[in-house]
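WARN no homologs supplied; continuing
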Amino acid sequence: YGWAEMARQVNINCFKSDPCIKSSLKFLRRTPWARKEVEAMYLASLDDDAPVEKADPWANWQKK
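OK structure emitted
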């Protein structure tokens, strides 16, 4: 999905403010309610029949 789409679907700051895998995983491991929301988003994505537009994870690698 990419960080922007995840932030749009699940309203948590670890996806909005300077997102990275390490900080997001740390937050989700320690925060049960946020983990449940992300898990629900994932399970809902499995039910979707429409193809999901995927963001290029390497598109902005030089911006930092």
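The chain has a mean pLDDT of 82.
OK
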